[in-house]
Amino acid sequence: MRINDQQLALVDNQIKRILASGNYYSKLYQEAGIEGVSSPEDFEKIPFTDKADLRNAYPLGIQAVPDDEVVRIHSSSGTTGKPVIIPYTQKDVNDWAEMFARCYQIAGITSSDRIHITPGYGLWTAGIGFQAGCEKLGAMAIPMGPGNTEKQLQMMIDLKSTVLCATSSYALLLAEEINKRGLKDQIHLKKGVIGSERWSAAKREYIARELGIDLYDIYGLTEIYGPGIGISCKGQAGMHIFDDFLYTEIIDPQTGEVLPDGEEGEIVITTLVKEGAPLIRFRTHDLSRIIPEECPCGLHYPRLDTIKGRSDDMFKIHGVNMFPSQVEEILGMVDGVSSEYKIDIAHDEMRNKDIIMITAEAEGRVDFMSTGETIRNLVKTKYNVTPNVAIVSVNTLPRSEKKTQRVFDHRGD
Ligand code: ZN
Beta-strand (E) ranges in 57-126? Predict the structure, then answer.
C-alpha cells in the first residue's frame, strides 16, 4: 500500500529534522536537493540507504539529536568491516518497548505470563528489547541470556516459565534437551516467541511438538529499533508490522523499482518517528512480500510474509527471481532427500538459454532417477522453471559450519 498522508507528514518532519541536525544524511539530502516530501512521488525519489551508509557514518555520524538527548546505543556486528552504531533517545527506547509489548499481546501473552528470555544482552539489541517489552506489558521477565543449558532448564522448571523467547536454533537445542532428559512433564511453556531468521517447517514442527507450544515469529533489525517491530499472529500467515512507527515498501532488489502489494522482493523500511537515528528507505536485504488481504485475526496492521531469505542470495533465471529457500522448500517435500544442495547456473551458448542445475543428496534406499524426476517436476510446476537435477549420495556435498554457499552462477565465467 502506498504511503498515506499521515505517514507522509511524519517523513517530511523526519527530513527537516535530519537537515537541521547536520548529520551524515543531511549532507546527502542537501546534495540531492531534498528539502521535504509532500506526495508519494516525492517520497519515492528519496534515494535508498543501507548498511554501507551506516558504516561510512561510523561511529555516530547518523545521530540526529544533540548528545544530551541520547540515552543508549546499540551496535550490529557486521560480518565484515566496521560495526554499525545506532543511538537511541528516551522516546526511541519507549517506542520500541511499546511496539514489543504489542507483539507480546498479539501473541496472546499477558501480565500473568513468565517470559524466559534467552537472546543475548549487551550491544546487540536482542535481549534488552525482549525485556523492555515484557516489563511494559507487566509480565515477569526471566532474563537468562544464552547458554548454560543446565541452568536454563532448572529455571524453566522452578519458575514455571510460560513463554520462551529464543532464536530458532536455540529453541531447537532446548527442545532436544528436554526430550532427551524426559522433562516434558515438568515444563510449563505455552508459547514461543522466535527470532525471524528463516527456518524450516520441519524444525518448526519439531519445536512446537516437543515443547507443546504455539510459535510466533518476531521481526526486527538493529538498524530499525531491534526485534519487536512486527510479529506473526494467531492466523499464522505473515507478520503484522506497526505502521504508526514504520512505513514498509517492497522493491525489486536489482532495479530498485517499488513493487505492488503481493509481489516478492526486498523489504525497505522508513522510520516515521525515530529521533536518535532516523532512517528513510533503509534496505534490509530481507526478502518477503506484503500480504494484500485483510488478516483473519482482525488486526489492521499491514502484514509481511515469512522472510524468504536474503536478497544477496537471489538469482535470476528465465526472467524469474528465485532464491535458494525455494529450492530448499521443494527438497523438503521429497522422501529420502537431505537438506544439503547446490545450485549451478550457466548459459547454454548453443541454445542461447540459461540453464539451472540442482544437485541434491538422497539416501541409498530411494531410487535416484525417480527422485530427480520428482524434484524436477515440483520445481517446474511451482516456479515454471525446468531444472536439470543430479542426485548424489548423502554426505557427498561439502558441509560447512559457517554459511554454506548454495548458488554458483557461471554465466559471467
Ligand atoms: Zn493477524
Answer: 70-76, 84-89, 114-117
Q: How would residue 404 be classed by pLDDT, with cut points 50, 70 and 90?
A: low
- Distance in Å, CA 236 to ligand 1 centroid: 7
Q: Which amino acid is located at 201 in the chain?
A: A
Q: Cell numbers of 389, please?
A: 537435477
Q: Cα of 255 to ligand 1 centre, how many Å? A: 31
Q: How far is the CA of 155 from the centre of ligand 1 (A)?
A: 32
Q: Which residues contact 342 (CB under 8 A, 6 or more apart)?
A: 358, 359, 397, 405, 406, 407, 408
Express each pLDDT in 25-62 by its tens digit. Answer: 999 999 999 999 999 999 999 999 999 999 999 999 99
* Grid cell 526478502 in the structure block, residue: 287
- Domain of 192: which CATH number? 3.40.50.12780
Which residue's entry shows cell 560495526? Answer: 83
Alpha-carbon gap, residue 308 to 220, rounded angstroms: 15
Predicted confidence at residue 307, as pLDDT, reads 87
Distance 298 CA to ligand 1 centre (A): 6
Range of the domain at 383: 314-409
Distance 308 CA to ligand 1 centre (A): 19
Q: Work out how many domains the chain is built from and give that number.
A: 2
Give the cell for residue 70.
Answer: 541520547
Instruction: Identify which of 309, 311, 338 has the alpha carbon closest to the alpha carbon of residue 326.
Output: 309
Q: What is the mean pLDDT of the chain?
A: 92
Domain identity same for 303 and 357:
no
What is the rounded CA–CA span in Å between residue 163 and residue 243? 26
| Residue 124 contacts residue 73 (beta carbons within 8 Å) | no
* C-alpha of residue 217 to centroid of ligand 1, in Å: 12
Whole-number Å distance, alpha carbon 314 to ligand 1 midpoint, is 28
Each residue's pLDDT tens digit, 94-144? 999 999 999 999 999 999 999 999 999 999 888 999 999 999 999 999 999
Mention every residue, 6+ apart, whose C-beta is less than 8 A from residue 370. Answer: none
Look at the block and give the residue holding cell 517506542: 95
Are 304 and 359 in a shared domain? Answer: no
Q: What is the pLDDT of residues 271-288, one digit of tens each?
A: 999 999 999 999 999 999
